[in-house]
Amino acid sequence: MEKYRIEKNTVQETLVIPLYGRKLCSERFPELFYDKESERLVDMIDFDFKEKGKKMDNIIGLFGCIEVAQRQYDLAYEVSEYLKEYPEAAVVNLGCGLDTTFQKVDNVLCHGCNFDFPGVIEMREKLLPSSKREENIACDLNDFSWMDRVDGSKGAVFFAAGVFYYFQKEQVKALFTEMAKRFPKGVLVFDACNSKGVKMMLKTWIKEAEIKDVGAYFAVEDLKEIEGWSPDFSSVTSRGYMTGYRDLGKKIRPLYRFLSRFGDNFIKMRIVKIVFKGE
Fold this sequence. Notes:
Strand content: 15-25%
Shape: globular
CATH topology of the domain at 84-276: Rossmann fold
CATH class of the domain at 84-276: Alpha Beta
Number of strands: 9
Helix content: 40-55%
Strand order of the largest sheet: 5-4-3-6-7-9-8
CATH architecture of the domain at 84-276: 3-Layer(aba) Sandwich
Radius of gyration: 18 Å
Structural class: alpha/beta
Order of helices and strands: EHHEHHEHEHEEHEHHEHE
Distance between the termini: 50 Å
Number of helices: 10
C-alpha cells in the first residue's frame, strides 16, 4: 500500500509529532499507555520518523511522549465521565488530526464527530476512515456553521487536544460563547497552559521542528476570566495535566515526577473543563 506523504515544516507535521509520541510512549511505558493503533498509523505514513525519533528518544524527549499520552488519557477520562450521564451523546473532537480518542471511549451508543481543516480530514479519511457511528468533517472552527453538523439533542461533549494554543483569545472567546448557546448541558474540555508555557512551546518543539506556518497565541492565566465570558457557562474548572488524573508514582523515574509537578504548578499545564448551563 502506498504511504501517505507528510510535508516537512508544515502544520501537517504537528499531526505526526503527537502520533509518534504516543507510539514511543506505548513502546517504552506500556503499563501507562498502550496504543497499538499508533504503530499502525506510523507505518502508513511517509515521513522521516527515524530522524524525529533521534530527537524524541532521549530523557527529555520521552517525557514529552508521556505528556502527549497523558493528555489523551485525561481527555478520554472526561469524555467517559460525561457519557455515564449522557450515553447517547455526540462526542466531538475539535481539531482532530490523527487522534483516536473516540475509539477509546466508544460505548456503542454515542456518535463521534471529528472536525478539522479539509487537508487534515482528507489525510484522516485515508488513514482513519469514518466508522459506522463516526464522521470526519472538514471545516474551519472559526466558521460556526460546523455546529449545524452536531446533534446535541441527547447531549454533547467536546474536546480538543493541543488545538487552542494556535488561536487568538478573541477567537476562543467567540467560539466558546457560541457553543454554550447552541449546546445546553454540554461540556467542553481542552488542554492549556499559561503564557510562560506557550513561550516555552514556541522556543522548543515548534522551533526545533522548523514549522513556519503556525503561531501560538492563547494562554490561560486565570479561570475567572473565562468564567466571565458567557452567562451560559455553568462552571469553569481545571485539573493538573500531569498530576490531576492519576498517580504516575513509581511508574516513571524521579526526574519525570519532578517535571510533571513543574509543568502543572509553574507553567500551569491544565485540563480545563467548561460545563454549559441547561435550558
